Amino acid sequence: MAPNFAPCHSLGELHSASQHRYTQHIKTNQNSFTRWAGCCPPLAPSFPPMPLDPYAQAFLLELARSGLPAFHELDVNAAREQMLAASRQLGPPLGTTATCELSVPVSGGKIRLRIYRTRPEPLPVVVYFHGGGWVLGSIETHDVFCRDLAYVSGTAVVSVDYRLAPEHKYPTAVRDAYTALDYVHSRADELGFLRGSLAVAGDSAGGNLAAACALLARDRAGPPLAMQVLIYPIMDFDFSTRSYAECGEGYFLTRAAMEWFWSHYLPKAEVGHEPTASPLRAACLERLPRAVILTAEFDPLRDEGEAYAQRLDASGVPVVLKRFDGTIHGFIRRTRNWPVAAAALQFLAAELAPLHCGRQ
User: Fold this and answer.
1) Residue 329 a catalytic site member
2) Which one from 53, 143, 236, 299 is the annotated catalytic residue?
3) What is the pLDDT along the chain (360 residues), one digit of tens a residue?
4) 303 annotated active-site
5) Half-sphere exposure (CA, 13 Å, Cβ side) for 46?
6) What end-to-end distance do the CA atoms of the chain give, in Å?
7) Catalytic one of 87, 138, 197, 204
8) Cα–Cα separations (whole angstroms), residue 143 to 159, 225, 318
9) Does the active-site annotation cover 278?
10) What CATH architecture is 51-355?
């Protein structure tokens, strides 16, 4: 029997009273939050843009003053080290989670899975794919975030250490991701997961892999997914959107960086239009699991994530879209210092809550 779910933890304790009031303001006044039910708003809002969040503004100023090179200005190994070092400065996890690791065979090798949980009884499970443009990132860079997601949501989280480009170009990451998903589903009982309460999730490139897994699971009659959670996802091999024009320089993630990521990931440009590389280009989005999509206002990936939400809605798929105004790509892992990130984590916990009852 599924355990009765009560919200496990509050994020209010993370902030001073003023920060908490700011968090509540963000949660209450998101002017572009839509829970779609048969009608789609325009992708280009008619209201003026929000000012840049003061925490994001301070981060960008500090980054500029640091003199650190951008990822795409480094060789791959140096960029990976820089991301890992930056990730270690994000702070300790919110609370205690038990972890264990598994080695899973994949075509041509093995990958690691790290499982996070707060309770020993059977739990819903979120299979999580880290961001980093398919080139950077690991289960180490996203360790604290996965701990926090498990701690706040009460779900188990399985973080997937899929193989990276350019050593392993597309579609290796997709194949690794789907293999991991199938492994978790097929061994749910022995791993202590609730059947019927399986979700995929990921940020940035990981959101791309989560969406690709949802497409493959549908097309192959594979693991039955209750939900897909896409956090500022990469959804299309296309640099011509309005958000690329508006936010492609000066807001942390740049157009130049995305071109660098795609160039390392794809064996040739032509395959970038395949649906498991660019889910937005899939011919059919019907019969996909409920989607929760988060975007950031000052993010070059904003429009492709919101376009995917609109297409899902038009295809009859339940969609929750939330744009976090005033902030930038990568914000969600900064829950210690940015109230908007804490609010986003609390929002995800609320959206994942139905998994505890086997409901979507």
Assistant:
1) yes
2) 299
3) 332 222 333 334 333 322 333 333 333 333 333 443 333 343 444 455 779 999 999 999 999 999 999 999 999 999 999 999 999 999 999 999 999 999 999 999 999 999 999 999 999 999 999 999 999 999 999 999 999 999 999 999 999 999 999 999 999 999 999 999 999 999 999 999 999 999 999 999 999 999 999 999 999 999 999 999 999 999 999 999 999 999 999 999 999 999 999 999 999 999 999 999 999 999 999 999 999 999 999 999 999 999 999 999 999 999 999 999 999 999 999 999 999 999 999 999 999 999 998 644
4) no
5) 2
6) 17
7) 204
8) 8, 23, 30
9) no
10) 3-Layer(aba) Sandwich (3.40)
Overall pTM surpassing 0.90 (yes/no): no
- Candidate list 15, 72, 130, 329, residue with the active-site label: 329
